[in-house]
Amino acid sequence: MSRYRGPRIKKVYRLGALPGLLQKYFKYRIGKDPNKKKLSYRTKSKEYRIRLQEKQKLRFHYGLTERQLVRYMHIAGKSKGSTGQVLLQLLEMRLDNILFRLNMALTIPAARQLVNHRHILVNGRIVDIPSYRCKPGDIITPKDNQRSKNLIFKFLKKKKIIIYLRKFPKHLHIVSKKKKSEAHVKQIIDREDVGLKIKEYLVIEYYSRQF
153 and 123 share a domain? Predict the structure, then answer.
């Protein structure tokens, strides 16, 4: 699967905070904070740019290719309920994002690497597919060897690393907070617990004009 290997800080300057893509916290350059730009909705080009930026924000935060995001859009469109909310739920319930929200990895790409290298168990079985969709009742644990556990918990010892302050979501539960050795998925995530500030209706509008 293709991965984004370009400059990450440049993406954050253009799109805003992307905690899943960039692990370090930094102050925006003066005049470069995209959240402080006053964009006008008068022209079609600016409206398109706003929708495109929201779509790109979703893509780079979750580490998806355009084809993957389009596939999730088709699934969300065929599901019951709000298309935007279902889309966010599908992305948030991915295994790599669940590991990131559990603070078992600094970024979503780091969580994806843990899954690809077979360090994660779901319900006692090795899962090496980052896009695996977790369901309520799933139990997520590191592989039962010291190497896997060290890879997951090593960043907790690095006191100098400054990461985004993450609000622990209600749909996840850690049994042992000290060792963080077992996590349970209690329910489907609510919209208010999504870890990215995003206007999903603009993403839906973007794709509705593409198809």
Answer: yes
- 175 Cβ contact list (under 8 Å, min separation 6): 181, 182, 183, 184
Q: 59 Cβ partners below 8 Å, 6+ apart?
A: 65, 66, 69
Q: Are residues 100 and 181 in the same domain?
A: yes
DSSP-derived pairing of the beta strands 125-126 and 120-122 = antiparallel
Residue type, 82: S
From CA 144, how far away is CA 199, in angstroms rounded? 40
Read off the pLDDT of residues 111-153 as tens digits, 9 standing for 90 and up.
Answer: 999 999 999 999 999 999 999 999 999 999 988 888 887 777 7
Strand order in the sheet with 125-126: 125-126, 120-122, 139-142, 183-185, 172-174
Residue 102 has which token pair? 């559990």
Q: How far apart are CA 165 and CA 186, in angstroms?
A: 22
Same domain, yes or no, for 35 and 75? yes
The whole-model pTM stands at 0.80
- Greatest CA separation for the chain: 58
Q: How many residues does the chain have?
A: 211
User: Do the beta carbons of residue 2 and residue 65 sit within 8 Å?
Assistant: yes
- Structure confidence by residue, pLDDT tens digits, 37-93: 444 444 556 888 899 999 999 999 999 999 999 999 999 999 988 999 999 999 999
Mapping DSSP to helix (H, G, I), strand (E, B) and coil, where does residue 174 land?
strand
99 and 134 belong to one structural domain: yes
